[in-house]
Amino acid sequence: MDATAPGFMIAYCIGRLGCHVSGDGDWGRINNVEKPFAWIPDGFWAYQYPHNLIREGSIMLRCDWGNYCYQLDQAVFPTSLWEAIICFLLFLLLWSWRKK
Q1: Which among 68, 61, 89, 87 is positioned nearest to 23, based on CA atoms?
Q2: pTM, rounded to two decimals
Q3: Which of 46, 51, 55, 91 could be cross-linked to 75 through a Cys-Cys bond (beta carbons 3.0 to 4.6 Å apart)?
Q4: Which of 59, 61, 51 is nearest to 24 (CA)?
């Protein structure tokens, strides 16, 4: 298990990034909370998942992506992005411990 744990973390990280990029519906709840710090990019705090795969939300104007011209009406917490970041940090931690 010690040998495979870093691989599992990086694999989960890549999978969650795929969920975030595709907008497959694995997002968080509606985000009505203001950013706690101004330095946080908007997309890291609240995201509307334009061109999402499940065609959730409203149709975007001037979009030529065929069936993928939908965007959420309200911004949500980008939990898949947060999980990817956390898993990458856990991967780095496990990788640094691999020789101990």
Answers
A1: 68
A2: 0.89
A3: 46
A4: 51
Three-state SS string across the chain, please? Answer: CCCCHHHHHHHHHHHHHHHHHHCCCCCCCECCCCCCCCCCCHHHHCECCCCCCCCCCEECCCCCCCCCCEECCCCECCHHHHHHHHHHHHHHHHHHCCCC
Q: Which of 30, 72, 78, 82 is nearest to 51 (CA)?
A: 72
Q: Do the beta carbons of residue 28 and residue 44 sit within 8 Å? A: no
- How many domains in the chain? 1
* Pair of tokens at residue 91: 């991967």
φ, ψ dihedrals at 25, nearest 5°: 100, 0
Range of 73's domain? Answer: 5-96
